[in-house]
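Just curious. Invent one:
>
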Amino acid sequence: MFRVETTMLMPNAMVVAEVLSRYRRAQARMLRDPRNPAHRRQLEDAAYTLSVLMGQRTVRTAVLRAAQYLSAQSSRSAAHRSRPTESLAR
């Protein structure tokens, strides 16, 4: 038996943040006015986009993965900024 390893390309963090924010805004609108069909369509569209973007089958998992991804990106960015720059001249 052999093992197949897969590598997934990850989306741009700014795109993930925008889509996650759009999903959360649509969810809030839907909770305020659940009978509005436009709000339902917006929530479904944002949920689908986020699920595809994060490569997940459910929106719940996609939201969790997006939040984890953004947190990790933020941590990496902070660590990169705090690292002293190396001198090019040796």
Remarks:
- The first helix runs from residue 13 to 32.
- The mean pLDDT is 87.
- The chain has one domain: 13-80.
- The chain is about 70% helix and 0% strand.
